[in-house]
Amino acid sequence: MSDNTKNDAPPERPLKAYAFDPSQGRNLGNYMTINVRNEALQPGPVGKYLVVIDYDASNDTYYEPVNLDDPAVLLRGGLDPSESDPRFHQQMTYAVASETIRRFEFALGRKAKWGFRGGRRTDPNRYRLRIFPHAMQEANAYYSRDLQGLVFGYFPASETDAGANLPGQTIFTCLSHDIIVHETTHALIDGQRRFFMEPTGADTPAFHEGFADIVALFQHFSYKEALLEVIQKTGGLAPADGGPVIAPELSTENPLVQLARQFGEAMGMRAALRQALGTQPNSKDLEKLFEPHDRGAILVAAVFDAFFSVYVRKTRDLMRIAKAGGATVGPDDLHPDLANRLAKEAAKIAGQFANICIRALDYCPPIDILFGDFLRALITADYDLVPNDRYQYRAAFIEAFRLRGIRPQDVASYSEESLRWCPPEEMKGVTAPVCKGLDFDVFSLPTPAQQKRNAIILSLFGKNNAEALGLRPGIPVQAHSFHPLHRVAPDGGLRVEIVAELMQQTEVHLDPNDQQSEKFTFRGGTTIVLNREGQVRYAIQKSLGKDDDQNERLRRQREYYYAMDAISGLTTYLPPPPLDGRPMNFNLIHRGY
Q1: Percent of the chain predicted with pLDDT > 90
Q2: How far is C-alpha 494 from the chain's CA centre?
Q3: Considering 192, 226, 261, which residue would you say is the last residue of a domain?
Q4: DSSP string of 37-48?
Q5: Are residues 465 and 539 in the same domain?
Q6: Which residues pair with 535 in a beta bridge?
Q7: In terms of domains, do 171 and 243 share one?
Q8: Whether residue 446 has a cis bond before it, omega within 30° of 0
Q9: CA distance readout (Å), 542 to 91, 363, 456, 492
Q10: What is the tens place of the pLDDT at every residue in 40-80?
């Protein structure tokens, strides 16, 4: 291929996929086209970030890899949706995963990276995420750091309760749009926050599950075609003109709620998610739900409540205009133009909510994430980029989280000012330190040499400013990550910042009163957000504390380990003794899709 041909190549290539899964047929805009970033692909497909390896371990079989650069395939915009063609399965997993990566990169303002390390230097795929579309005959799909990939299973539908499928029909998890997004999101979270894989409390595995569902839900909702037919058939949304936004208007009869609950159906055996979406908030649920999916569904429901609230607010005028003009808004009576406008608005808001949630990862502490921490990260991340909250997105988040019983720690109230993270001078009354000498190019990934130099500079910076940054003096500081990023605000302004994680750890006994009890690694650290000159704007802390005997976070982590050991049904989410910080096993968490 000549250089001119390369330069003339279109920036995107269309690839066909299911918007839901094969069971939906052509209903609800189920046949869709995803415009993924165009890149030269080897058969597999194999691209910059992904390699699809279609090996069926149960049958010891390799399936023929699809060649998406074949002119016959290119001219058709990819292979047509098919349950029986493994090559389409390869195409769909590549397309959906690629689109998820693109959305993360857009929201974060930097290139994606993976959480796995190592591999043979001679392996051409050592830096790619592996995708196994037909890995095993099992009702499961999961992300594995050890396998450096996404593993999808297939299984026969139930003979007695097959739902929309034929009894005994083969169900392929790799053909569920939402499951692919969910598993890709697990991998992307691991690349941004490696220590979120360590279960240090009930919220950490639940956050991983809930966040992956949030991204999948909003990615689903951001496709207007997937919304249009539902809104048209159900009469759109006729919100009340007054009263609180969330409580009276959340109903399982609402078209957007119906579509969200269909999302829960598409995720397989996820009764908790289906039951949480669109229900009236219960602030006591967090006190009794601890299984990761059940607890994560509360986080998903809170974010969906906020989304729904903003959607109601931004479309209320459209419904009033339609009614004033004598238009009907009942089932099958909604004017096509109004239905199209409502679907367009819902898709736009879904994309915005996805961006806010993904961007908030950079404003989370590096370890021991709590739902309340995520709320504070959401508020700070959105305020940082969009100070003028014209449509009250942040107010919607705050109210929705409050109604679901999510209470942040160390804040005076639910006010926006109280929830935003503080710079060191406001938190500790000290001058914000400046990290000088960092070497980076904001428009490209740091080179290994730059990473090494920056790690040394940041580690020394953390050591010399331990008190101001919420680190324990005398304990070594390791700069775990370094991310230069750029983001464009709604006013067109370019924000250039650096996000880094400064980590510490110590070994402690599980039983503080028994020096013979097993030890585990207790971690602490601080996420620092720096401006281009290296000045610390935020220091988001999960400190080791000064005294182990008086450390509330350490006490909670010990209690969690004891509780998990006592409840046999949940022990699969913890590593076997000794408690050595091994990551969560999504193979066990996701079994039963």
Answers
A1: 47
A2: 24
A3: 192
A4: EP---BTBTB-S
A5: yes
A6: 434
A7: no
A8: no
A9: 42, 12, 21, 34
A10: 999 999 999 999 999 998 889 999 999 999 999 998 999 99
**Residue type for position 368:** D
Structure tokens at 143: 């992300």
The domain tally of the chain equals 3
Cα Rg, the chain, nearest whole Å: 24
Same domain, 50 and 109: yes
Instruction: State which of 145, 167, 192 marks the end of a domain.
Output: 192
Same domain, 159 and 245: no
346 vs 78, 221, 393, CA distance in Å? 28, 7, 14
CA distance to 24, 33, 111, 216, 371, per residue, from 29 (Å): 9, 10, 31, 17, 34
Q: How far is Cα 550 from Cα 547, in angstroms, rounded to an integer?
A: 5
Gap between the Cα atoms of 300 and 383, Å rounded: 21
239 phi and psi angles, rounded to 5 deg: -70, 155
Contact (Cβ atoms closer than 8 angstroms) between residue 108 and residue 381:
no
Question: What average pLDDT does this structure show over 291-307?
Answer: 91
pLDDT at position 241 over 60 = no
Are the C-beta atoms of residues 100 and 185 closer than 8 Å to each other?
yes
Residues 263 and 154 in one domain: no
Across-strand partners of 589? none
Tell me the residue range of the domain where 435 lies: 430-548
Q: Tokens 């970033």 sit at which residue?
A: 37
DSSP assignments along 443-497, one per residue:
TSPPPHHHHHHHHHHHHHHHHHTHHHHTPPTTS--EEEEEEEEEEE-TTS-EEEE
Enter the DSSP assignment of 175.
G
Q: Are 176 and 220 in contact (CB under 8 A)?
A: no
Instruction: Give the chain's largest Cα–Cα span.
Output: 78
142 phi and psi, to 5 degrees? Answer: -160, 160
Residue spans of alpha helices (H) in 61-202: 71-75, 86-108, 177-192
If phi over 0 gives left and psi between -120 and 50 gives alpha, with beta otherwise, what is residue 187?
Answer: alpha
Is residue 327 domain-shared with residue 464, that is, in the same domain?
no
Q: Which two tokens stand for residue 61?
A: 């079989």
Helices (runs of H) and strands (runs of E) counted in the chain: 18, 13
Flag whether pLDDT at 263 surpasses 70.
no
78 touches 16 (CB < 8 A):
yes
Q: Which of the listed ranges 163-172, 251-260, 341-350 does the model predict with the highest average pLDDT?
A: 341-350
- Same-domain status, 434 and 411: no
pTM: 0.89
Task: Indicate the SS3 state at residue 508.
Answer: strand
CATH of the domain at 44: 3.10.170.10
- The structure tokens 């924000």 sit at 495
